[in-house]
Amino acid sequence: MIRLALVDDHLLVRSGFAQLLSLEADMRVVAQFASVPEVLKGLLPDMADVCLLDLSLPPESGLTLLGRLPEGVKALILSVQDGPAMVEKALHLGARGFISKRCQVEELLLAIRTIAAGGCYLPPALAANLLAPRQGLVCLTPREREVCELLAEGCDVRTVALRLGLSHKTVHVHRAHALDKLNVSNNVELAHRMQRES
């Protein structure tokens, strides 16, 4: 029997996962938590085999739990924040697997069983993203990065031009080059990318 601890700050999400996992004959949810302090206080040694852990937990990130879970409890990150930088960070800190909340049920079950058996699990798409050469923020020129940081803060092109002493056309050129290098198509995607990798 695989004993599971669920960590997510949304009650409906936890309840949904608990209900879903209870249908599996080889799995049992033994604990549910809504925050990092709750886990540190309530997850005891030898209570669970696998901890399904969300990253967005008030008041701390779920990442802070990695390395602090009781011995023998393996962490499977289950999050919408599944960019390569976040996946790498979680694995570096000790997660045994990482899966998107957008995954299919079958993949979630496979990940849990793989990790419970002592393995590690990454969906093929996430593994490919980690292995593929990536154009990260490091590929931006200093000026492109300055422009991107201001755009990500919500400044419009006119404001960026004024603050950096550039023409509107020059700002548009730097923006276009940065969007192309980072493989994003608009300022919203740019802001998400900057936040994720900075």
TrEMBL record:
InterPro entries, alphabetized: CheY-like_superfamily, NreC/VraR/RcsB-like_REC, Sig_transdc_resp-reg_C-effctor, Sig_transdc_resp-reg_receiver, Tscrpt_reg_LuxR_C, WalR-like
Domain HTH luxR-type: 133-198
Compartment list: Cytoplasm
The keyword Cell inner membrane belongs to this UniProt entry's keyword annotation: no
Signal peptide start and end residues: none
Keywords: Activator, Cytoplasm, DNA-binding, Phosphoprotein, Transcription, Transcription regulation
Modified residues (4-aspartylphosphate): D54
Purpose of the protein: Part of the UhpABC signaling cascade that controls the expression of the hexose phosphate transporter UhpT. Activates the transcription of the uhpT gene. Acts by binding specifically to the uhpT promoter region.
All residue ranges annotated as the Response regulatory domain in the record: 3-116
Xref: CDD domains: LuxR_C_like, REC_NarL-like
UniProt protein name: Transcriptional regulatory protein UhpA
Main location, first listed in the record: cytoplasm
